[in-house]
Design a protein that fits this description.
146 residues; alpha/beta; Rossmann fold; 5-stranded mixed sheet; 5 strands; globular
Length: 146
């Protein structure tokens, strides 16, 4: 049985971005409820991308604060990132035409047997290997989450 909601990097960033008040509120609520209920899933790629964006690209916080935030998410880092992920990502890319790094993250979510991939960046409603892409700003993921 599939379970878990895989959280894309953009959702993590929105949960902290002061320039996106409405999205910040929704993303933070999703993370809070998912962490408490234990259905949030991330991958090493998610954690690493988030760190880079928080510290370098958007400069939303100093390294120490970003590391502290991401340390709270490390228990959710349950999706693999290995050679099997790469092979699965090739299949997903050929099937969907999505960007490479999105395909790697989707492959991690499929391998982790997540039911939902929460992302604003991909096509809402698309299904890949039993995984449904859902925009958390258009869908209420928390109540119906596994």
């Amino acid at each position: 049985m599939r379970r878990g909601v895989f959280i894309d990097t953009n959702v993590l960033i929105y949960s902290l971005d002061p320039n996106e008040a409405e999205k910040r509120t929704r993303a933070a609520a999703l993370l809070r409820s998912g962490m408490l209920a234990g259905w949030i899933v991330t991958s090493p790629q998610t954690i690493n991308e988030c760190y880079r964006v928080l510290v370098d690209r958007k400069r939303l916080m100093p390294r120490e604060h970003a590391r502290a935030f991401l340390a709270t998410l490390l228990p959710t880092c349950l999706a693999p990132l290995d050679v099997t992920t790469t092979a699965e990502a090739w299949t997903i890319q050929d099937r969907t035409g999505f960007a490479w790094w999105d395909c790697v993250m989707l492959a991690s979510a499929v391998q982790a047997e997540c039911s939902v991939f929460a992302s604003e960046d991909l096509t809402d409603g698309t299904e890949i290997g039993g995984l449904r892409i859902a925009n958390p700003f258009l869908n209420d993921l928390a109540p119906g989450a596994p």
